[in-house]
Design a protein that fits this description.
4-stranded mixed beta sheet, alpha+beta, elongated
Length: about 180
């Protein structure tokens, strides 16, 4: 999901307001809930994107969907977005807010892909190793049997791929290059 400039501006404003009102952690939890709800519910996403559904109906629907599950500040923010006709970018705002929150708190997300689920000891060792950067590490774990073994870690725009699959692909390329070299 791509963040628009408007989504980033709204997220930044919400972050500043949440800091000012000392409700930063609660608003972060609210934005995570909103992002998850929209990602998991195609109907909610379609409703937000629909130009046919009136803003008042969208506002009422969002109030029913989230109700008391989100803070008053987040409720007011969502209502403001629908009043301004910007509810279609709510998912992008939520994702942008979480990114800005993590940046503000010095939290770095590290996506870890393994062939099998990490054990608690492996998870702790990985966090310890990655936290040597001085930042708090938030692990996002995925299991993908196609990696066959090893680990692939992505932190920001850096990728460390120590998977069996990558090594096998490199070996395949080396063998193909050697066959080509030998036949010349």
């Amino acid at each position: 999901m791509r963040s628009t400039k408007a989504a980033i501006r709204y997220a930044q404003s919400l972050l500043e307001l949440a800091i000012e009102q000392k409700s930063l952690d609660q608003v972060k939890a609210d934005m995570a809930l909103i992002a998850q709800c929209v990602a998991e519910s195609h109907e909610v996403d379609l409703m937000l994107q629909s130009p046919i559904i009136k803003p008042d109906l969208k506002k009422k629907t969002l109030e029913k969907v989230f109700g008391s599950s989100i803070s008053k500040l987040s409720q007011s923010f969502v209502a403001l977005l629908t009043t301004k006709g910007r509810e279609s970018i709510l998912p992008q705002i939520a994702v942008s807010f979480i990114g800005l929150y993590n940046e503000h708190m010095g939290i770095v997300s590290a996506e870890v892909v393994t062939a099998t689920k990490l054990t608690a000891a492996q998870r702790d060792e990985l966090k310890k190793t990655l936290s040597s950067t001085g930042k708090t590490i938030e692990l996002i774990e995925r299991v993908d049997p196609r990696v066959m073994g090893g680990v692939r870690i992505k932190v920001g725009d850096q990728l460390m791929d120590a998977t069996v699959r990558r090594k096998l692909n490199e070996l395949k390329v080396d063998i193909a290059n050697n066959k080509l070299s030998a036949s010349n």
